[in-house]
């Protein structure tokens, strides 16, 4: 059995960031065909990359995990100064900037330099962090990049332009992500596959709800993900409060996810924050919601959007994100908006038109089953691994 490795910035069962969760699910499913290891940092929190876990070798759900010590906590003042220099095109700041970007784990770089031959392929998750930039900088002959890239300002920095030429192959999350890298960084012609995230369709509807949310069953929308500026949650917070002012209804917004430190939000009795909850609780809340809302402007793929479809629920997404908009159009399982008034109109349409609502639910379920079953994803990723490793 061939041995493969995944590289990701954080890895644990209680970490629910999009890329980290995606990596964990893919690693666990690929373990049916390969001996799988994950190479990661000791960080629990991405800001400022704490040294939380022990640096050790352990096992999580059948996957071997090697964690490497975070040797420097990010200096936010220094990082901001370096970021300003990078945005002005100062390439001399690149090395220090990526070290501050973190998680700074020089022992990982040493390990992979000495041991890359032990793996048929090494799949690097997420283009932007230290582990990927330093790992790909070694120009390994078996390095595959799963970039989770979107059209954000940082992607245009010179350090990344150079890095995108290093992988021998690519795994893309979506058509839009592939087109972005092909047109901007010339990756067309490099071996690749599109589609590397699977979704499990719940076998039944979970009627139970966490006790404190039972009163909201049947009349709420939900948001799942980090409550952060980067995920554009503040806009959803503002839009929903405005919606409640303009529309007489008892509709609530349930927010599932960790709130970033320092986030300033408008308080409302109609918005309920759950914090981190179990997968069963999350699934139950999504299955009983009217609609899932994703306000993010920057995504390479929205797993929670696909999970909502698998829960037989439609989606409402930010049309300024080409990936979310594209998924919405291809699935015909929801609507997208460009501003507040379109948000209000789209939400009311979904809530008030039963026939269209049921059709969106049906379309979403079919879209997930046809394109995102784990059997299909494992075969797709395996075909690239075999092409590269021989």
β-strand percent reads 15-25%
Give me the count of strands.
14
Q: What's the order of the H and E elements?
A: EHEEEHHHEHEHEHEEHEEHEHEHEHHH
Look at the helices and sheets and give the structural class: alpha/beta
Note poorly predicted spans. Answer: none
Describe what you observe in this structure.
- The strands form two sheets. The chain has an eight-stranded mixed β-sheet with strand order 3-4-2-1-5-6-7-8, sandwiched between helices. The protein has a six-stranded parallel β-sheet with strand order 11-10-9-12-13-14, sandwiched between helices.
- With 390 residues, it is α/β, with parallel strands linked by helices.
- The protein has helices at residues 18-30, 76-87, 94-101, 106-115, 130-136, 158-163, 175-185, 233-246, 279-287, 303-310, 322-331, 340-352, 354-371, 374-389, and strands spanning 3-7, 35-41, 57-60, 63-68, 121-125, 143-146, 169-172, 192-194, 220-224, 252-256, 271-275, 291-294, 315-318, 334-337.
- The two termini are 13 Å apart.
- The protein contains 14 helices and 14 strands.
- The protein has two domains: 3-198 and 373-389, Rossmann fold (3-Layer(aba) Sandwich); 211-371, Rossmann fold, CATH 3.40.50.
- The relative contact order is 0.11.
- Helix content is 40%, strand content 17%.
């Amino acid at each position: 059995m061939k041995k493969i490795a995944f590289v990701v910035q954080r890895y644990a069962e209680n970490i629910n960031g999009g890329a980290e969760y995606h990596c964990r699910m893919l690693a666990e499913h690929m373990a049916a065909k390969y001996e799988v290891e994950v190479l990661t940092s000791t960080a629990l929190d991405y800001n400022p990359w704490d040294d939380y876990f022990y640096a050790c070798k352990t096992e999580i759900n059948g996957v071997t995990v090697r964690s490497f010590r975070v040797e420097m906590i990010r200096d936010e003042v220094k990082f901001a100064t370096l970021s300003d220099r990078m945005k002005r095109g100062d390439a001399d700041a690149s090395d220090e900037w990526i070290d501050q970007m973190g998680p700074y784990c020089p022992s990982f770089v040493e390990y992979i330099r000495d041991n890359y031959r032990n793996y048929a392929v090494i799949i690097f998750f997420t283009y932007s962090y230290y582990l990927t930039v330093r790992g790909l900088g070694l120009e390994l002959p078996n390095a595959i990049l799963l970039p989770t890239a979107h059209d954000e300002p940082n992607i245009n920095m010179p350090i990344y332009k150079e890095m995108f030429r290093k992988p021998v192959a690519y795994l893309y999350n979506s058509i839009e992500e592939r087109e972005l890298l092909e047109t901007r960084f010339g990756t067309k012609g490099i071996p690749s596959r599109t589609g590397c995230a699977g979704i499990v369709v719940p076998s039944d509807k979970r009627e139970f709800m966490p006790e404190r949310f039972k009163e909201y069953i049947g009349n709420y929308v939900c948001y799942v993900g980090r409550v952060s500026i980067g995920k554009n949650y503040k806009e959803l917070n503002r839009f929903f409060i405005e919606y409640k002012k303009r529309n007489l209804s008892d509709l609530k917004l349930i927010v599932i996810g960790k709130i970033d430190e320092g986030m300033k939000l408008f308080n409302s009795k109609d918005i309920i924050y759950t914090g981190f909850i179990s997968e069963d609780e999350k699934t139950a809340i999504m299955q009983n919601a009217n609609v899932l809302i994703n306000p993010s402007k920057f995504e390479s793929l929205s797993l929670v959007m696909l999970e909502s479809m698998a829960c037989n629920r439609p989606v409402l997404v930010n049309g300024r994100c080409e990936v979310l908009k594209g998924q919405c159009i291809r699935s015909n399982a929801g609507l997208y908006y460009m501003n507040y008034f379109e948000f209000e109109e789209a939400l009311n349409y979904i809530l008030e038109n039963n026939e269209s609502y049921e059709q969106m639910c049906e379309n979403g379920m079919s879209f997930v089953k046809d394109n995102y079953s784990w059997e299909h994803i494992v075969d797709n990723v395996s075909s690239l691994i075999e092409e590269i490793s021989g």
